[in-house]
Write a sequence for this structure.
């Protein structure tokens, strides 16, 4: 049985922080050198993240990889993809494919971690990185709910405090 090493966690953490930095540059028009479209560097970083997610998926399912890190990674990837802007129909189609894959991974991770509510998802995110003062919680909640409830229909959602039926992309 192969258990992940802390160097893998360190590598993943560095990669995630790099992606976070690149994403902030894209969203901040003051420091960005472009108008908010998906930059080649950010796209490459997201592809690398998705490769890592795919590479470690079976390890997560077997409990041989840090599940909270993996869950955080797929939530982060879905968030960046959802907030990204595109320049062409080709970019839009590519981003939709990546987004759909991230949503599938969120649903799978929620199943593996036995997450059934947004509060449970936040608890799992806290195991790796979560700030209770984070101002993007509603957007993340919408992404998680969209992934979790994708094929179960809106009727099974609890009414109190849920995000409405809008797609998570409506926040951006």
């Amino acid at each position: 049985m192969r258990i992940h090493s802390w160097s893998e966690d360190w590598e993943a953490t560095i990669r995630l922080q790099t992606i976070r930095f690149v994403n902030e540059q894209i969203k901040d028009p003051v420091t960005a050198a472009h108008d908010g479209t998906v930059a080649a560097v950010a796209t490459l970083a997201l592809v690398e993240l998705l490769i890592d997610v795919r590479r470690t998926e079976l390890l997560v399912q077997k409990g041989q990889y840090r599940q909270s890190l993996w869950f955080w990674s797929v939530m982060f990837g879905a968030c960046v993809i959802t907030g990204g802007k595109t320049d062409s129909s080709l970019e839009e189609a590519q981003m939709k494919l990546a987004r759909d894959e991230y949503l599938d991974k969120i649903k799978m991770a929620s199943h593996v971690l036995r997450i059934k509510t947004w509060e449970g998802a936040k608890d799992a995110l806290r195991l790796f990185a979560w700030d209770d003062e984070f101002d993007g919680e509603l957007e993340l909640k919408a992404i998680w709910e969209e992934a979790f409830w994708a094929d179960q229909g809106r009727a099974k959602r609890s009414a109190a405090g849920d995000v409405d039926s809008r797609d998570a992309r409506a926040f951006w």
User: Anything to note?
Assistant: Residues 6-171 form one domain. Confidence is low (pLDDT under 50) at residues 1-6, 28-36, 153-166. Residues 89-112 form the longest helix (24 residues).
